[in-house]
Amino acid sequence: MTEVATARRSRITPEREAELYLAVLDLLREVGYDALTMDAVAARTRSSKATLYRQWGGKAELVVKALRHDKPVPADEVDTGSLRGDMRTLALREDDCTMEQNTALMRGVAMAMHNHPDLRRAFQEHLIEPEMGAFRRVLQRAVDRGEVRADCPALDYLLPMLIGGFASRALLEDQPPTQAWLISYLDAVVLPALGVPTA
Q: Domains of the chain by range and CATH?
């Protein structure tokens, strides 16, 4: 049974999958999560609804996988030889315009998660947990190089610090983060908390 399901899922080519994900994100920006339907995705992508359900199971999984596909390379694939270099490179993965678009998109999805437990579960499984794992590996490299103490209490709070920075920028200042702001935040808050020199 599992082999049959896997065979069915493999019919969509990577190019077609990328095209579908792009259409899902476009729809998400246009109508928001609540109003996005599998019917609308099927119509926009000229797919059958049955194919969409067979491949992704439902709207929550499809949306989260589209969000994950749109993300730059995983954090742990960046290795500049220093934690500061890694963090700066990660901060510059997206230009200011892309960050503005993605911040608005993620804010809408975050609000929808309060009312949709399936979306929250999919988001946790496919975005939060892999991202936390990738950042843990980045930090472990820094510990192995001797840049960060293994008992540094801030090690467990890297992702919350980053998410908190994004959230406060959007909520308190009503502005999306920019590359310059991210670099400044890393040097003023995140790296000092980890005991990493920024000068």
A: 1-59 (1.10.10.60), 71-199 (1.10.357.10)
